[in-house]
Give the backbone structure.
Amino acid sequence: MKRTLWFAGRNLKEMLRDPLSLFFGIVFPIILLLLLSFINRSIPAEAQMTLFEIESLAPGIGVFSLSFIALFTAMLISKDRGSSLILRLYTSPLTGSNFILGYLLPLLPMAAIQLLVCFAASMVIGLPLRSEILLCVAVSLPIAVVNIALGAIFGSCLTEKAVGGVCGALLTNVSAWLSGIWFSLDLVGGAFKTVAYVLPFANAVDACRAAMEGRLQDIWQTLWVVCAWAVGLLAVAIVLFTRKMKAK
Amino acid sequence: MNDIETKGLTKRFKEKTAVDGLDLTVKQGELFALLGVNGAGKTTTIKMLSGLLVPTAGTATVLGYDLATQLPEIKQRIAVSPQETAVAPNLTVRENLELIAGIYGSSRAQAREKTAALLDELHMQEVAKSRAKTLSGGWQRRLSIAMALISEPQLLFLDEPTLGLDVLARRELWQVIRSLKGRVTVILTTHYLEEAEALADRVGIMASGRLLHCGTPRELMDLAGEEKFEDAFVKLAGGEVQ
């Protein structure tokens, strides 16, 4: 565990010292939040459009902002893979699990901070201060693990250049479309909705909204899907990284 | 006692044989240079002996441990300074050193202590607080070697440690490497002939994946019947002497 913590400390420093990570993790979601709130003010009440109301928007943007965690993870791992530092570390006593946990551990508190900043910004534009916000942060952590694991998988397979496209553009868009943040999945329905609810993103948003609204009994109904994905993807990430490590 | 013993160690990549039946013995405390032109198999040899590549055939013991079955024991006792500079770019020199010390099992206090001692020993105090990515090539290479030393390895692999450095930086690094003699077994790969001649107790000449000749620089010059090490190398690596 000590080795993992040393490696995790290094990863935390690398990320905090990268201004791009801070922009996409903290600043970009706030910009989105403000933008959509302003759009919401222009929507007439008769439209009965509640999707962009702050109680619904804040959990959605919070979950969406976590998709950038996949990008950070993938960038960090692919950058490491392309450098000689990883060769040095591969010859050290670090194991595959040490590596993955070392990438995971600093990202979880970072995800929590990202969510807290997002909710703090939401409070400035009208979200009432309530204890459910903390519950919302806790409920969002499994989707953070999903994103970290996805980042680890892509980072283990792709080059630094490809990671930007796959995680930066593709994954963030796919997770946004299939999460029900920008439009109601009920409006689309059919296969699209079914696929969205097989994947973890929409389930994470629903669980987070249930937490925000204090519907405690509804949280687990969708959160278990996210947890299952988190465990499965994490296992895949560990196996894949270890294989790549041995192939080196 | 021998720190490295290989028998018929071979690495094939599809049709290409990178290392071909290597029989090598390196004694404890020795500074052994693997010399050869590009593609001779030096780096592949180091990668196999440090566990980065699995040999296709042959056997090896490293520090008395079997390479095939006791890799974790070996990893705890060796260190590698790869061909390219291997540092964490956004970490300071001090943080880089403490990181490696920690990964090899030091507590925070021990890591700090070891780092301070190594910074003094390698005259690196002036750059201790600088981020690695801001250092010159020479300083980065020195840091890379320091990172390999912080874990106090019994066996150190230095893969082309002075590649691309100017003469002054190279000579400074030679001083660092010389200071290791006797206390750490060092396997050094290089294609700089003067480097091997100046630093190594023994030199192994590799070509096309095979170890052609092995001996002290003087023995190799005598074998080739040449007075200059460069001439001896050309003769021996070119296969003019059997």
